[in-house]
């Protein structure tokens, strides 16, 4: 079997009402999905998505004519491209989907088959007034989720604590709460400085009082010593690593004992091949491994296969913030949006590859460029 072509396309969904993410000062009025398809001479087509793969154009010849099953080789070439250009890992994901189609097995089983499902936590994305956030938490309980992630990034972190306290008062101890402090990285136009260790420690003490399960991205992504010291000082878990660019940086987070919960994303760093190895290393070191999955349903499913097959994650991120962010919006390229069951479990398909069906009519309608 040989790779015959690599097809890339962009699809845009208008957002009305717009989505206002906590990590971005600019509201999102549309949602773009960058899709990559790997075609073979046997008619099999693997699909990946989650990043624009900036700089990939013109490098297709590095893969054309190659056997798509040579996953180690392709991982190394994509790693090279992702160093020199943009993050090209959706292509590597598509090759795993293709390998699953060829073998007739789901990707989670090819990775070791630790489980065929992941327990989802509802990951909110916007900033709301305390009462509105408490209402969302009540809805999340009714939907069957066992946990919820709350975003910080208000003008003063004391306001963030007020919103978190409102949620805890509303749901009691019936819902695990995580907090994303959004201090690890910034959008290109955001010049705000990250918290210092003293600020992060002060926030952490408040989170301990409210029985928070983990504190995510409390410091700049390169502050290894600060993360290590914070982790030693507090009882709650410290999480991070979602946008870390290189695998060796993630390994350093493990080796330096900076985190309790490692959160890389296979569409932006390391792919499935690299992160499966890292997940086993993290679990062996006593860390939790649960991928970041804030994107579209194709990237979400790739990360779910990784989490289920290689790590057996305790919780898995499921973006959910209606009405501005819903499974129907997030997964518009798919025939059926991904939804967990009434107990919060996302059950992965037994079908080959990622087990996804693209909505070709919708993709044609939304294609741009």
Automatic annotation (TrEMBL):
Record-annotated Mandelate racemase/muconate lactonizing enzyme C-terminal domain positions: 130-237
InterPro entries: Enolase-like_C_sf (IPR036849), Enolase-like_N (IPR029017), Enolase_C-like (IPR029065), Mandelate_racemase_C (IPR013342), RHMD-like (IPR046945)
GO molecular function, one term: magnesium ion binding
Keywords: Magnesium, Metal-binding
GO biological process: carbohydrate catabolic process
Cofactor names: Mg(2+)
CDD domains: MR_like (cd03316)
UniProt entry tagged with the keyword tRNA-binding: no
UniProt keyword Cytoplasm present: no
Pfam families, alphabetized: MR_MLE_C
Name under which the protein is recorded: L-alanine-DL-glutamate epimerase
Species name: Tistlia consotensis USBA 355
């Amino acid at each position: 079997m040989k790779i015959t072509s690599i097809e890339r396309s962009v699809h845009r969904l208008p957002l009305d009402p717009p989505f206002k993410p906590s990590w971005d000062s600019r509201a999102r009025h549309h949602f773009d999905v960058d899709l990559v398809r790997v075609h073979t001479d046997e008619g099999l087509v693997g699909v990946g998505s989650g990043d624009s793969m900036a700089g990939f154009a013109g490098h297709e010849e590095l893969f054309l004519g190659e056997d798509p099953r040579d996953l180690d080789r392709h991982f190394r070439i994509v790693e090279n491209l992702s160093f020199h250009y943009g993050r090209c890992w959706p292509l590597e994901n598509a090759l795993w989907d293709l390998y699953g189609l060829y073998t007739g097995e789901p990707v989670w089983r090819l990775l070791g088959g630790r489980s065929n499902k992941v327990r989802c936590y509802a990951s909110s994305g916007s900033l709301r007034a305390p009462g509105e956030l408490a209402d969302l938490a009540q809805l999340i309980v009714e939907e069957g989720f066992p946990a919820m992630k709350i975003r910080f990034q208000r003008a003063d972190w004391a306001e963030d604590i007020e919103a978190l306290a409102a949620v805890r008062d509303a749901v009691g101890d019936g819902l695990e709460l995580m907090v994303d402090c959004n201090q690890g990285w910034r959008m290109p136009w955001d010049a705000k400085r990250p918290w210092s260790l003293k600020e992060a420690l002060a926030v952490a003490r408040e989170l301990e009082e409210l029985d928070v399960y983990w504190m995510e991205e409390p410091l700049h992504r390169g502050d290894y010593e600060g993360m290590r010291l914070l982790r030693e000082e507090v009882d709650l878990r410290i999480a991070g690593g979602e946008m870390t660019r290189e695998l060796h940086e993630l390994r350093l987070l493990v080796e330096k004992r900076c985190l309790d919960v490692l959160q890389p994303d296979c569409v932006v760093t390391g792919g499935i091949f690299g992160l499966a190895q890292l997940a086993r290393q993290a679990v062996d070191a006593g860390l939790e491994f649960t991928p970041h999955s804030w994107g579209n349903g194709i990237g979400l499913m790739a990360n779910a296969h990784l989490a289920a097959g290689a790590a057996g994650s305790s919780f898995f991120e499921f973006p959910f913030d209606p009405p501005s962010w819903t499974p129907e919006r997030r997964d518009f390229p798919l025939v059926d949006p991904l939804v967990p069951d009434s107990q919060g479990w996302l059950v992965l398909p037994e079908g080959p590859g990622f087990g996804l069906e693209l909505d070709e009519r919708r993709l044609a309608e939304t294609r741009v460029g």
